[in-house]
Each structure stands twice: as C-alpha cells, then as structure tokens.
Amino acid sequence: MENLGLKFNNLQKHMKKYLVILWSMFMLCFCIGSCKDDPKTELPVEIASCETHPQPGCPNYVDPEIPTLSAKITVGTTEYTVDSTHIEKIEDGFWYLYAQLKNGNKPLIIHSLRYTTSVSGYGIETWVGQDSVSGKERPSAMVDRYERAGRQVKAAINGGFYNTAVGGTPMSLEVMNGVMTFPPSTDEPQPVIGFDAQNRPYMDYVRMDAKVRDANNRELAFNSVNGTRWADYLVLYNSYMGKHTKTNEWGTEVQCLPMTAQWEKLGSHLNVRCRIEKIESMNGKGNMEISGGNIVLSGNGAAHQYLRTLQVGDYVYVTVDYSLQSSPNITSATIRNAVSGYNIILQRNSIIEPDPALIPDMPLVTSNHPRTSAGFSADSSHIFFTVVEGRRTGLAAGVSTKELAQVMKYLGAANAINLDGGGSSCLMIGKETKNYCTDGSQRAVANGIAIIKN
C-alpha cells in the first residue's frame, strides 16, 4: 500500500507538470492566433504613433514651415487659376514665393519674401536714405552701404510715401532703432507698420506726445521732429536732420545736451534731462549746428517767445513719445522701427475697404499700379515683404489696394499695409532684385524695411 501511495503521488506531480506545459502551449497558440487576426499589432510603435501624431521622420509628416500656394486666387470679384508658382527656401526661416497669372483680363506677377520670426539671429530695421530724413537712396545702395559697415542684409523692400518736392522727406512717422526720425502726420493721418526688439509686428494709426518742460514746469508741445519750422512751430532736430537745422533767422534755437547716455539708443525718450549748451535768437542766420550728440529745440513766433526765456546752463526735460490708437500701452518704448503706409488693407483676415475720410486721393488706391506691401500672419509668426508688378502690358497689370489685400491673404498674411508703389516698388533678397522695376532700374526712395543678420 505504501508503494501504491508513492506511485500515485508521482503521477499527480507529472500530471501537474504536463498540465502546465499544455496550458503554456495553449496560451502561446492563442496569442499567435490573435496576432494573425489583428495585423495592426505587428506594426512598430513608432509607425503607429505616426498615424495619429505625424512628426519628423514619419512617412506622412509635412513640415508646417514649408509654404504652400493655392492653385486658385481671387482678384477683384473673379477667381483665377494660378498658371505657375515657385517656392524656394533661401535658408532656415526665409522663403521666396512667386506666382504668375497669365490670364488676359488680369495678368499678374507676384513676388514675396516670408520670414519666420522665431528664427533668431536677425533684426527687422527701418532704413532711411543716406541716414537722413531728406535723403533718398536705392535699396541696392543701402544694401551695399550696410555691408561695407559689416552688416549682412538678408532682405529689403522700399518703404513709405515721401515728398518728392522736398528731397526724400517722409509723409509721416518714421522710426529707426528707437529714434523718431520724422513725426506722424497730423494733416493726413497715415498708419504705420512697426517692429519691436523681438521682431514682433504691429500695425495701426498712432498718436504723438512730444513736448519740452522747463525748470518752472512750463510746457510746450513740439509740432514736428526734423520737419520744417513753420510760423509758431516748435521743432526738435536730431542727428537724422543732418549737421544743421536748415532754418531761417526768424526764431530762437537752443542747443541741448541730453544727460542720459546714448540718447539715440533709448527705448523711449520720456522726460530726458537736457542741459542747455547754446542759444541763438534772431541771429540773422538761423541754421544752428547739430553736433556731438546734441539736439536742437527750434521755435518761431509763440515758440520763439518760450525758448528765449531760457538760459545757458538751464535744464529742460524733453519727451518724444507715440502710441498706437487701438493699444495705447504700445508706445515708443516697445516699437523700435517703423515706417508709415498710405492705408491698412488687411486686418485680422478682413479686407479693409478704402475710407474716403482717411484717403484724400481715392484714385491712388483704386487704380491698378505696381504695389508694395508689408504684412504678417494672424499669430505674428511670419512676416511678408511683397511686391506685385504692374505697368507691363500683357504681363503684369498691377492691382488696386483692395486686390493687393487679396494677394496678401493668398500668400498667408492676415494683416497688411499698403506702402509706396509704382516705380518705387522693389523687393531685394540678398543683393538680388526680384521684381521688374518700372523705371528700368531701382528708384532712389526715402526709406524702407530690411531684415539684417545680427
């Protein structure tokens, strides 16, 4: 009986062993069968994630930085088929976009530079002709001038409208590296496009707050910066005016030395303490010298009476500020570079109809011309410099500003401004002029916008 018990125990042990083996084989077969029934489990984890989360390295990944241009574009009230497009990567963050419509009713040639603001190492700056408010310069000459100074210009376009009867004097606000070189117009308000130190764009009409205050808290507003000194005007002149104020003898001029270092590099000129170095009043010549980092306060009539009470060695406090109409907290402390345009054409993806109350010369915006525009995307991540060619019979008809807004939307902009066009229109990438210039070559212009390697 004892041997029989041992044999029974051994049999139980072997049966348990065999059952474990059989169970393991069953589960193995079940798993293999399941895998064959569901082929998705055979895919690598990386490929499975590509299906729901495309990323670099996935076969279905599309780089969002690569621009796309639709095969259709609406110009005016008509939708056209785009005959040819070209998209070229210049380098990281820079793309050249080209589109052509050969339709006989509206032949167009479009050139645009798209810059990605998150790509570091570049600054967007205003440039002024020959570094003077009365100077004019071809964009190519500006590029050469900057490069001789060791600055690499990646792209540039012409800027705002200017007074051809008075050299290259701008029609409205111009700001260069934090310095107001010309004030906003009060007669015909013009909007501006500006950029802060991080290349973030802004577009709006502006209000100016510029004044001088003496030690007795007497204040007087400036009528202009680097502009003509008319009757009863008080004007501030800085180095962008040149070496002299170019005024007549009928007034008082006060040469001041800002006590804050690097006056022209400040984020804003708010209550800057200035020491009076020299005063000339009704001296028979006017035209005071601007030198050594000085500024000049120049007054006629009532402003002359205000200035003539000052003495050499006195201190005055000078403010030169401006702010955006719709965002008063955005001031000269924020915007480092800006040029004015004739009208806003696109805002928050909506095309802005020309307003006769703001635009005295409606044919200028409603007729077909070569056009220049600067704009930016809805999230401000992309800046667009664009030229639409015109005045080329059978090749490029030009556009109205409303049609220019449609072009900017087609390129990917949600906000855009109309800059000086016609023979002034010019887009440069590096040292290459991308568009046909209607004068046969580049026109010397008052100012522009450039993207410069830091």
Kindly summarize this structure in a few lines.
The protein is α+β, with helices and mostly antiparallel strands. The protein has helices spanning 2-37, 45-52, 139-148, 302-307, 362-366, 401-411; strands spanning 72-75, 78-81, 84-91, 94-101, 108-116, 122-128, 153-158, 162-163, 169-170, 174-176, 179-182, 192-196, 201-204, 206-213, 219-221, 224-225, 234-237, 252-258, 269-281, 295-299, 315-324, 335-340, 343-347, 350-351, 371-376, 382-388, 415-419, 427-429, 432-433, 447-453.
Low-confidence stretches: 1-8
Number of DSSP helical runs: 6
Distance between the termini: 100 Å
Secondary-structure class: alpha+beta
Mean pLDDT equals 88
User: Roughly how much helix do the residues carry, as a percent range?
Assistant: 10-25%
Main sheet? 8 strands, antiparallel
Principal-axis shape equals elongated
The total count of strands amounts to 30
Rg for CA atoms: 33 Å
Strand content: 35-45%
The assembly state of the depicted protein chains is single chain
The neighbouring-strand order within the major sheet is 3-4-5-26-25-27-23-24
